[in-house]
Specification:
This protein has about 200 residues and is α+β, with helices and mostly antiparallel strands. The chain is built from 3 helices and 6 strands.
Length: about 200
């Protein structure tokens, strides 16, 4: 009699399969929500990084009366990183106190985390000297090298990223998860996954 009572208390194979199926369904329902929350967190981190870069460039300007651009740089919006494919370290090194010519007082204006073992780390400075966004793409920076307090908008001005010329001394952007400016490289800001500093 005692043995029969213990056998009835055990789970059947069908009951175990039903429980596993319920767990799989619940996981399937929560996975998109978790992914969406992670993407929003990455966008917040990218926005914070861009604000730090812009603040550091403006602090450099306040300290030295000029922007941290290589000598001889001119024009309406010296661009570094992002869609240009060039390195952002020409601007970042003076801000990080790695360029004694442009930053002779050796002030650290920007101190992002660094991972020199990777070529495109997420949210850090990599071995290439660039500051990478949370998706592993280099941030883009545009600086007013002719000092007329405006830089060109890298996006089509009719798509929600502001006018053709942004009335600031420095702007920054992240091309987002798709690694292309705008929607699949079309320079349209609306409905893109890009993050910009000036809005």
């Amino acid at each position: 009699m005692e043995m029969k009572k213990n056998l009835n208390a055990a789970f059947t194979l069908i009951e175990l399969l039903v429980v596993i199926a319920i767990i799989i369904v619940l996981f399937g329902l929560t996975f998109p929500v978790v992914q969406g929350a992670l993407e929003r967190a990455k966008k917040v981190q990218a926005k914070n990084d861009l604000i730090q870069i812009v603040t550091a460039v403006n602090a450099f300007y306040t300290e030295y009366g000029r922007y941290p651009v290589p000598s001889g740089a001119s024009g309406d919006g010296y661009q570094s990183g992002g869609t240009t494919g060039t390195t952002g370290k020409d601007v970042l090194n003076p801000l990080r106190n790695l360029d004694p010519i442009l930053n002779p007082r050796q002030i650290v204006f920007l101190s992002p985390p660094e991972d020199a073992t990777q070529t495109s780390p997420k949210g850090r400075i990599g071995s290439d000297g660039q500051f990478h966004d949370p998706w592993g793409n280099a941030y883009g920076i545009s600086i007013d090298a002719d000092y007329d307090n405006q830089v060109p908008n890298p996006y089509d001005p009719s798509t929600g990223a502001g006018p053709d010329k942004i009335r600031q001394g420095v702007i920054g952007w992240s091309v987002g998860k798709d690694a292309k400016l705008g929607n699949n490289g079309d320079n349209r800001f609306s409905n893109s996954d890009d993050v910009i500093s000036w809005q």
